[in-house]
Amino acid sequence: MARILGPKCRLCRRDGDRLYLKGARCHTAKCAIAKRGYPPGMHGFRRARPSEYGIRLREKQKAKRIYGVLERQFRKYFAEANRLRGDTGANLLILLERRLDNAVFQLGFAESRSQARQFVAHGHITVNGRKLDVSSHLVKVGDVISPKAHKKSESLARERIEGQQGRSVPEWLTLDAKELKGTVTRSPAREDVAIPIQEAYIVEFSSR
Fold first, then answer.
1. Are 74 and 126 contained in the same domain?
2. What is the pLDDT of residue 204?
3. Backbone phi, then psi, for 176, in 5-degree steps?
4. Of 89, 170, 200, 206, which residue is most buried, by most CB within 10 angstroms?
5. Which strands sit side by side in the sheet containing 181-184, from one edge to the other?
Protein backbone atom coordinates (compact mmCIF):
# COMPACT_ATOMS: atom_id res chain seq x y z
CA MET A 1 0.00 0.00 0.00
CA ALA A 2 1.24 3.52 -0.83
CA ARG A 3 2.03 5.94 1.94
CA ILE A 4 -1.04 7.55 3.50
CA LEU A 5 -0.80 11.30 3.04
CA GLY A 6 0.14 13.32 6.09
CA PRO A 7 -1.23 16.55 7.57
CA LYS A 8 1.25 19.11 6.18
CA CYS A 9 -0.33 22.31 4.90
CA ARG A 10 2.02 23.77 2.29
CA LEU A 11 -0.55 23.70 -0.53
CA CYS A 12 -2.70 26.22 1.33
CA ARG A 13 -0.21 28.89 0.31
CA ARG A 14 -0.80 28.55 -3.42
CA ASP A 15 -3.55 31.17 -3.57
CA GLY A 16 -3.03 32.85 -0.23
CA ASP A 17 -6.23 31.25 1.11
CA ARG A 18 -6.68 28.56 3.73
CA LEU A 19 -7.82 25.61 1.57
CA TYR A 20 -8.09 23.00 4.35
CA LEU A 21 -6.28 20.48 2.16
CA LYS A 22 -4.21 18.95 4.94
CA GLY A 23 -6.68 18.34 7.73
CA ALA A 24 -6.22 19.29 11.37
CA ARG A 25 -3.09 21.38 10.74
CA CYS A 26 -5.18 23.87 8.76
CA HIS A 27 -7.17 24.68 11.90
CA THR A 28 -4.10 25.53 13.99
CA ALA A 29 -1.51 28.28 14.16
CA LYS A 30 0.88 25.92 12.35
CA CYS A 31 -0.98 26.40 9.06
CA ALA A 32 1.25 28.11 6.50
CA ILE A 33 -1.37 30.79 5.85
CA ALA A 34 -1.68 31.57 9.57
CA LYS A 35 2.09 32.08 9.71
CA ARG A 36 2.46 33.90 6.43
CA GLY A 37 -0.67 35.41 4.91
CA TYR A 38 0.61 35.87 1.38
CA PRO A 39 1.62 33.56 -1.51
CA PRO A 40 5.20 32.27 -1.83
CA GLY A 41 7.71 33.82 -4.20
CA MET A 42 9.30 37.21 -4.75
CA HIS A 43 5.98 38.75 -5.88
CA GLY A 44 3.98 37.54 -2.90
CA PHE A 45 3.77 41.04 -1.36
CA ARG A 46 2.87 42.83 -4.60
CA ARG A 47 -0.29 41.07 -5.58
CA ALA A 48 -2.50 42.94 -8.02
CA ARG A 49 -6.13 43.50 -7.17
CA PRO A 50 -8.15 40.73 -8.85
CA SER A 51 -10.87 41.49 -11.39
CA GLU A 52 -14.52 40.58 -10.88
CA TYR A 53 -13.96 37.63 -13.20
CA GLY A 54 -10.85 36.62 -11.26
CA ILE A 55 -12.67 36.73 -7.92
CA ARG A 56 -15.38 34.37 -9.17
CA LEU A 57 -12.93 32.05 -10.90
CA ARG A 58 -10.83 31.87 -7.76
CA GLU A 59 -13.85 30.90 -5.64
CA LYS A 60 -14.68 28.06 -8.01
CA GLN A 61 -11.06 26.88 -8.05
CA LYS A 62 -10.98 27.01 -4.26
CA ALA A 63 -14.04 24.75 -4.00
CA LYS A 64 -12.50 22.31 -6.49
CA ARG A 65 -9.24 22.10 -4.57
CA ILE A 66 -10.87 21.74 -1.16
CA TYR A 67 -13.04 18.82 -2.27
CA GLY A 68 -10.46 17.41 -4.67
CA VAL A 69 -12.58 17.29 -7.83
CA LEU A 70 -11.55 17.87 -11.43
CA GLU A 71 -13.14 20.38 -13.78
CA ARG A 72 -15.26 17.82 -15.61
CA GLN A 73 -16.55 16.40 -12.32
CA PHE A 74 -17.28 19.88 -11.03
CA ARG A 75 -19.34 20.70 -14.11
CA LYS A 76 -21.44 17.57 -13.54
CA TYR A 77 -22.03 18.53 -9.92
CA PHE A 78 -23.06 22.03 -10.98
CA ALA A 79 -25.44 20.71 -13.65
CA GLU A 80 -27.05 18.38 -11.10
CA ALA A 81 -27.30 21.19 -8.52
CA ASN A 82 -28.96 23.39 -11.13
CA ARG A 83 -31.57 20.71 -11.82
CA LEU A 84 -32.50 20.32 -8.16
CA ARG A 85 -35.04 22.54 -6.43
CA GLY A 86 -33.83 25.37 -4.26
CA ASP A 87 -30.67 27.45 -4.27
CA THR A 88 -28.16 26.17 -6.83
CA GLY A 89 -25.12 27.21 -4.81
CA ALA A 90 -26.34 25.51 -1.65
CA ASN A 91 -27.27 22.39 -3.65
CA LEU A 92 -23.77 22.31 -5.11
CA LEU A 93 -22.07 22.39 -1.71
CA ILE A 94 -24.46 19.77 -0.34
CA LEU A 95 -23.60 17.42 -3.22
CA LEU A 96 -19.89 17.92 -2.57
CA GLU A 97 -20.41 17.28 1.15
CA ARG A 98 -22.14 13.99 0.37
CA ARG A 99 -19.08 12.58 -1.39
CA LEU A 100 -17.83 9.42 0.31
CA ASP A 101 -14.28 10.73 0.74
CA ASN A 102 -15.63 13.85 2.46
CA ALA A 103 -17.83 11.76 4.78
CA VAL A 104 -14.83 9.59 5.70
CA PHE A 105 -12.85 12.74 6.50
CA GLN A 106 -15.68 14.31 8.49
CA LEU A 107 -16.04 11.16 10.58
CA GLY A 108 -12.36 11.36 11.51
CA PHE A 109 -11.23 8.18 9.76
CA ALA A 110 -8.71 10.36 7.88
CA GLU A 111 -6.86 13.59 8.68
CA SER A 112 -7.64 15.28 5.36
CA ARG A 113 -9.88 14.83 2.34
CA SER A 114 -6.92 13.78 0.20
CA GLN A 115 -6.01 11.13 2.76
CA ALA A 116 -9.65 10.01 2.90
CA ARG A 117 -9.72 9.72 -0.90
CA GLN A 118 -6.65 7.51 -0.77
CA PHE A 119 -8.18 5.48 2.07
CA VAL A 120 -11.30 4.85 -0.03
CA ALA A 121 -9.41 4.14 -3.27
CA HIS A 122 -7.28 1.47 -1.56
CA GLY A 123 -10.38 -0.44 -0.47
CA HIS A 124 -10.26 0.30 3.26
CA ILE A 125 -13.86 1.60 3.51
CA THR A 126 -17.22 -0.16 3.44
CA VAL A 127 -20.69 1.33 3.06
CA ASN A 128 -23.49 -0.78 4.53
CA GLY A 129 -21.05 -3.67 4.88
CA ARG A 130 -19.89 -3.67 1.27
CA LYS A 131 -16.45 -2.50 0.18
CA LEU A 132 -16.65 0.66 -1.89
CA ASP A 133 -13.60 2.24 -3.55
CA VAL A 134 -15.34 5.08 -5.41
CA SER A 135 -14.54 8.37 -3.69
CA SER A 136 -17.24 10.27 -5.59
CA HIS A 137 -20.04 7.99 -4.37
CA LEU A 138 -22.79 10.12 -2.80
CA VAL A 139 -23.83 8.85 0.61
CA LYS A 140 -27.49 8.96 1.60
CA VAL A 141 -29.53 8.92 4.80
CA GLY A 142 -29.15 5.62 6.64
CA ASP A 143 -25.80 4.66 5.14
CA VAL A 144 -23.33 3.12 7.58
CA ILE A 145 -19.69 3.94 6.85
CA SER A 146 -16.90 1.97 8.48
CA PRO A 147 -13.41 0.63 7.81
CA LYS A 148 -13.19 -2.82 6.25
CA ALA A 149 -13.17 -5.68 8.77
CA HIS A 150 -9.44 -6.13 8.44
CA LYS A 151 -6.74 -5.49 11.02
CA LYS A 152 -4.86 -2.96 8.90
CA SER A 153 -7.96 -1.00 7.85
CA GLU A 154 -9.32 -0.83 11.39
CA SER A 155 -5.96 0.12 12.92
CA LEU A 156 -5.51 2.96 10.41
CA ALA A 157 -8.98 4.36 11.16
CA ARG A 158 -8.58 4.01 14.94
CA GLU A 159 -5.17 5.68 14.81
CA ARG A 160 -6.65 8.67 12.95
CA ILE A 161 -9.58 9.00 15.37
CA GLU A 162 -7.35 8.81 18.44
CA GLY A 163 -5.00 11.36 16.93
CA GLN A 164 -7.84 13.86 16.48
CA GLN A 165 -9.56 13.65 19.85
CA GLY A 166 -11.75 16.65 20.53
CA ARG A 167 -12.58 17.17 16.87
CA SER A 168 -16.33 17.48 16.35
CA VAL A 169 -18.39 15.53 13.81
CA PRO A 170 -20.96 17.44 11.69
CA GLU A 171 -24.57 17.13 12.85
CA TRP A 172 -25.61 15.21 9.75
CA LEU A 173 -23.31 12.35 10.80
CA THR A 174 -22.98 10.29 13.98
CA LEU A 175 -19.86 8.40 14.99
CA ASP A 176 -19.49 5.34 17.19
CA ALA A 177 -15.75 5.61 17.84
CA LYS A 178 -15.63 2.36 19.78
CA GLU A 179 -17.24 0.32 16.99
CA LEU A 180 -15.63 2.43 14.24
CA LYS A 181 -18.96 3.10 12.58
CA GLY A 182 -20.37 6.30 11.17
CA THR A 183 -24.01 6.79 10.18
CA VAL A 184 -25.60 9.36 7.88
CA THR A 185 -28.50 10.51 10.07
CA ARG A 186 -29.81 13.20 7.71
CA SER A 187 -28.94 14.99 4.53
CA PRO A 188 -26.39 17.79 5.04
CA ALA A 189 -27.64 21.38 4.95
CA ARG A 190 -25.85 24.53 3.84
CA GLU A 191 -25.29 25.41 7.50
CA ASP A 192 -23.26 22.19 7.92
CA VAL A 193 -20.62 23.36 5.44
CA ALA A 194 -18.03 25.00 7.69
CA ILE A 195 -15.46 25.87 5.02
CA PRO A 196 -15.46 29.51 3.83
CA ILE A 197 -16.89 29.37 0.31
CA GLN A 198 -19.05 32.04 -1.32
CA GLU A 199 -21.17 29.82 -3.51
CA ALA A 200 -22.96 32.78 -5.13
CA TYR A 201 -19.72 33.66 -6.93
CA ILE A 202 -19.44 30.08 -8.19
CA VAL A 203 -22.98 30.16 -9.54
CA GLU A 204 -22.35 33.49 -11.27
CA PHE A 205 -19.16 32.17 -12.86
CA SER A 206 -20.57 28.81 -13.94
CA SER A 207 -23.81 30.29 -15.31
CA ARG A 208 -22.04 32.46 -17.88
1. no
2. 96
3. -105, 95
4. 89
5. 130-131, 125-127, 144-147, 181-184, 173-176
